[in-house]
Design a protein that fits this description.
There is one protein chain. With 564 residues, this protein is of the alpha/beta class. It has three domains: 306 residues, Aldolase class I (TIM Barrel); 101 residues, no CATH class; 112 residues, Alpha-isopropylmalate synthase LeuA, regulatory domain (Double Stranded RNA Binding Domain, 2-Layer Sandwich). 40% of the residues lie in helices and 19% in strands. The strands form three sheets. The protein has an eight-stranded parallel beta barrel with strand order 1-2-3-4-5-6-7-8, surrounded by eight helices. Helix 13 crosses helix 15. The longest helix has 21 residues. The structure holds acetyl coenzyme *A, 3-methyl-2-oxobutanoic acid and magnesium ion. It is found in: Cytoplasm. Its main location: cytoplasm. Keywords: Amino-acid biosynthesis, Branched-chain amino acid biosynthesis, Cytoplasm, Leucine biosynthesis, Magnesium, Metal-binding, Transferase.
């Protein structure tokens, strides 16, 4: 990158330090949210929304709970104009919602804007003109006084038209490209507009300070906002608003720091659609607040449905990694994350169901309409026993002993790695059934009968072993013990250190029992098997035979028929 010296700093810091905001570590209430989806978001689309689409989007914003909505740039096109007229004439704006329209500071554009909002119950007229050094020099080729003149002339025309036009109108001014503007000049031009509009605490004016292009690190923006908040005239009659964009990828950070620095209102869009890299994403900001225990006042409890509607209307896609909304943002593929999540979920269930501190998951996915199943833990070759066991338990009800999870884990990972693909819960269950459950090779238990006498158990079993049907018998202090003796005495198969676990299998149809058994081979290696049957005794015998079969196969004593 040899051309770095082509670029120089284009932003301005206050002369005096403005870092009071660094002493605050959290936001304890939401800002006044203003959606600019229908204007800034819309103007950045390949094909801007048509009338019907804008109406549907407006309805969505109302349902989410926005009370201020910039509905368009009425002078831009017939569609924009018609949309605003439709909202007003069809009385589609709820009483507690204020629409906002944007206008340049040009005669005919302001006039057309007022034609559009005639009769509105409440509308904010948003005037902007660009104030940065680059825009003054290159676009407007005007000095500071001339730029102030543009703003003041527009403000006067708006003041006058608001008096003459039926409706209830409020005012907003944005020094566009604020972040590239010397702060004293930004103050001067905002104050000049305020002098025209003469706001009062009862009828405030919105001063909106946009990072039209994000030029600096976010702490610089925060300092600029703090400086403006401290020095603007008419302070008690102003709502201090911010409008971050995301050119450096720090729009959310800039917005949060700006709010720490005193911004009371925030303009942004759903999922950050907007010019270039987008406006700041209100979904992320709202859910960041939520994750700190603050109700954002916007309803994202069914975020997938909102996302689907936004995608359909804008024809834009939300990235799979988008904060909170992306398809994969609650998903762990990697073993250690899965293990921690599975343990965290269990811990929460048992110890603290009313709080959410599950590792790796900043919020409870259910709060925004996401599911645990298939969403949180997904399995591939990076996964581990914790996650694989969790998926099997959640989906098919098998609660494996910890060491058996490890053996299943390796079996599942091998398949995923070899086939280079993610495995579904059903595929994991299939591997489990194939590798561990009711195994009948090389040893097949055909029939088992038993009797009890004076605390001694006797069994008689018909098995198929090395191609032949054989009758074996044994005695012990329980049925499994007796079967172990029968295997040893009849076939010479010796097992040691048997462990046992059983539970009812609640997932799926019919009531079945499941048993897990481990046995050690002569070298001390442990082998697990599982048995499933409607009868628990049958299930445990099948588990023992399965464990023995895995032992025989994996200790290399018989040809590999299972457990490949
Ligand atoms: C940062 C932002 O997002 S700002 C909002 C931007 N959004 C849009 O532009 C979308 C809607 N815009 C439009 O439909 C059109 O641009 C219109 C209807 C507003 C104006 O159309 P036109 O007059 O045909 O063209 P255009 O936008 O190129 O006009 C540029 C002229 O306006 C001037 N101008 C631009 N912004 C402003 C402003 N805020 N106030 C006063 N004059 C302005 C330019 O200096 C230029 O002047 P010149 O004619 O002396 O060279
Ligand atoms: C019109 C203004 C507020 C704007 O969109 C911007 O500066 O980004
Ligand atoms: Mg913008």
């Amino acid at each position: 990158m040899k051309n770095a010296n082509k670029y120089t700093r284009q932003y301005f810091l206050p002369d005096e330090p403005c870092f009071d905001w660094t002493r605050r570590d959290r936001l304890d209430h939401p800002p006044i949210w203003c959606s600019v989806d229908l204007r800034d978001g819309n103007q950045a689309l390949i094909v801007p929304m048509n009338l019907e689409e804008k109406l549907a989007y407006f309805q969505l914003l109302v349902e989410i709970g926005f009370k201020e909505i910039e509905v368009g740039f009425p002078a831009a096109s017939d569609t924009e104009f018609e949309f605003v007229r439709t909202l007003i004439e069809r009385n589609l704006v709820p009483d507690d919602v204020t629409i906002q329209v944007l206008t340049q500071s040009r005669d005919h554009i302001i006039e057309r804007t007022f034609e559009a909002i005639r009769g509105a119950k409440r509308a904010i007229v948003h005037l902007y003109n660009s104030t940065s050094v680059a825009q003054r020099e290159q676009v407007f080729r005007a000095d500071k006084d001339e730029i102030v003149r543009i703003a003041v002339t527009g403000a006067e025309q708006i003041r006058d038209l608001a008096r003459q036009t039926p409706g209830n109108f409020f005012f907003q001014y944005s020094p566009e490209s604020f972040t590239g503007t010397e702060l004293d000049f930004a103050l001067e031009i905002c104050n000049a507009v305020l002098d025209v509009w003469q706001p009062t605490p009862e009828r405030k004016v919105i001063i909106n300070l946009p990072a039209t292009v994000e030029l600096s690190m976010p702490h610089v923006y925060a300092s600029q906002i703090e400086y403006m908040g401290k020095h603007l005239a008419w302070r008690d009659a102003i709502v201090l608003s911010v409008h971050p964009h995301n050119d450096r990828g720090t729009g959310v950070a800039a917005a949060e720091l700006a709010m720490l620095a005193g911004a009371e209102r925030l303009e942004g869009t759903l999922f950050g659609n907007g010019e270039r890299t987008g406006n700041v994403d209100i979904v992320t900001l709202a859910l960041n607040l939520y994750s700190h225990g603050v109700d954002p006042g916007l309803d994202f409890s069914n975020l997938p449905a909102i996302q689907a509607r936004v995608e359909a209307l804008t024809k834009m896609q939300v990235s799979k990694r988008h904060p909170y909304a992306g398809e994969l943002v609650f998903t762990a593929f990697s073993g250690s994350h899965q293990d921690a999540i599975a343990k965290g979920m269990k811990w929460r269930e048992e110890k603290s169901p009313e709080h959410w501190t599950v590792p790796y998951l900043p919020i409870d996915p259910k709060d925004i309409g996401r599911e645990y199943e298939g969403d949180i833990i997904r399995i591939n070759s990076q996964s581990g026993k914790g996650g694989i066991g969790y998926v099997l338990e959640q989906s098919h009800g098998f609660d494996l002993p910890p060491k058996m999870r490890e053996q299943l884990g390796y079996a599942v990972k091998r398949v995923s790695d070899r086939e280079q693909k993610e495995l579904s819960a059903d595929e994991i269950a299939e591997i489990f059934m194939r590798e561990f459950v009711n195994l009948a090779e090389p040893l097949d238990l055909v029939e088992l009968t038993g009797t009890d006498a004076k605390g001694m158990h006797r069994v008689r079993a018909t098995v198929v072993w090395q191609g032949q049907q054989v009758e074996i018998e044994g005695a012990g202090n329980g049925r499994l013990d007796a079967l172990c003796h029968a295997l040893e005495e009849g076939l010479g198969i010796r097992v040691a250190n048997l462990t046992y676990k059983e539970h009812a299998l609640e997932v799926g149809s019919g009531s079945r029992a499941v048993a897990y058994i481990s046995v050690d081979d002569e070298k001390g290696n442990t082998h697990y098997g599982c048995g499933v049957d409607t009868d628990i005794m049958e299930a445990s015998a099948k588990a023992l035979v399965s464990a023995v079969n895995r032992m025989l196969v994996h200790s290399g004593e018989v040809p590999l028929a299972v457990g490949k």
